[in-house]
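Good morning N.,

You mentioned wanting to compare the apo and holo forms, so I went ahead and generated the holo version with guanosine-5'-diphosphate. This is what I fed in:
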Amino acid sequence: MRIESPRYTERFGSVRINDVQKVLELDSGKAKDLPLHENIAVQKIEEDVIKNFEEKMAIVIPTMDEKLKLFEGVISGVPHECLIIVVSNSQRKKVDRFRMERDTLQQYCHFTRRQALIVHQKDELLGRALAEAGYTDLLGEDGKVRNGKAEGMVVAMLMAMLARKDYVGFIDADNYFPGAVWEYVRCFASGFSMARSPYSMVRILWRYKPKITSGLYFKKWGRVSEITNKCVNSLISNNTGFETDIISTGNAGEHAMSLRLAEILPYASGYAVEPQELVSIFEGFGGILPMSHQTAAKHGVEIFQIETRNPHLHEDKGDEHLGDMLMTGLGAIYHSPICEGETRQLIMSELLQRNLLTPEEEPPKPRLSAPPKKIDLTKFFKVMEEHLPSYSALESE
Ligand code: GDP
Ligand code: CO
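and this is what came out, ligand included:
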């Protein structure tokens, strides 16, 4: 694969944010013993290097009542070396959709000779394991994991740690193009191969996000992302004193992290999760507040933003969903202890303009769960390890 080298890197305390890097070539051919002179503006990432990172990566697919055909397409796009982890919050009453997902995954693993894990978010044993480990932040009053994509993501991170992986990537189940899924994972691997710090994150940006109106209209970025990015950039600019537009991936659902970074960040629930990850990194390592983790501060936290060749097309969930997403995402920025007056004003004016708030109101404060590292992981592993075969899609045959 060939990708542009980062042209510019913004520094915020010990956080290094790289400018968007475009994919130039999806397949860059064989490795050469004596490489030709490469242009320094371009990085060639060899297939073997990509495969070695994929081997150490779990790909998480959060899903809730998505069309089975889409789910099937998504899993078919995940490169073979990755461990697939499905966290589902699909219904089990009337129609047992979770069972259908599990059957699909099992059949796929059977024929492709690969391993995958699948867990239902409301699994009782999972709830118990989390309670024993002291991770009650994720649990509702019934002792089960609360609803929400973010809650599912955190569960999946713990499963990835249990499976001894080093990296975890997230890809939504409602993606229409298996080829895009395949490209995301290659971008994750390429980003990690460029990282100089073990604490790294790769966020995906789409060249085009088609919208189905009349015909197919290829829109550059979504509206929600544009506003979120503007507010995240304002947060950075006002804290560093230098104006920047470095962030273009504030809402990136498709993203990946080294587990060393993933385990030390707190997470917001619901759709605030993606912008909150950035906010958590800036709070922890931006140098405004005390550094939240000394080793990570020493190495620095590195963020890559990679623009794919494939367009991004997923299920259209309507305007109300978009409003909710914008509001919760901006809420995460607004309530950060490093969010100053100017950014707060900007957030309020964006929300007021869209009639999402009245002037007396404030955007909602996100509910935060503690970093996974703070819990007693040995206890969690002990309970889960024993039952791991029941979460495995490829039973020993
Ligand atoms: P958008 O793509 O950001 O607009 O949001 P979606 O509604 O498409 O959700 C992103 C992904 O998270 C999809 O694959 C959903 O099926 C999945 N998802 C949504 N809610 C939940 C949940 O409560 N639990 C889990 N495990 N997944 C969820
Ligand atoms: Co979606």
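The pocket of cobalt (II) ion (ligand 2) is lined by residues 172, 174, 314-315 (CB under 6 Å).

Happy to go through it together on a call whenever suits you.

Best,
F.
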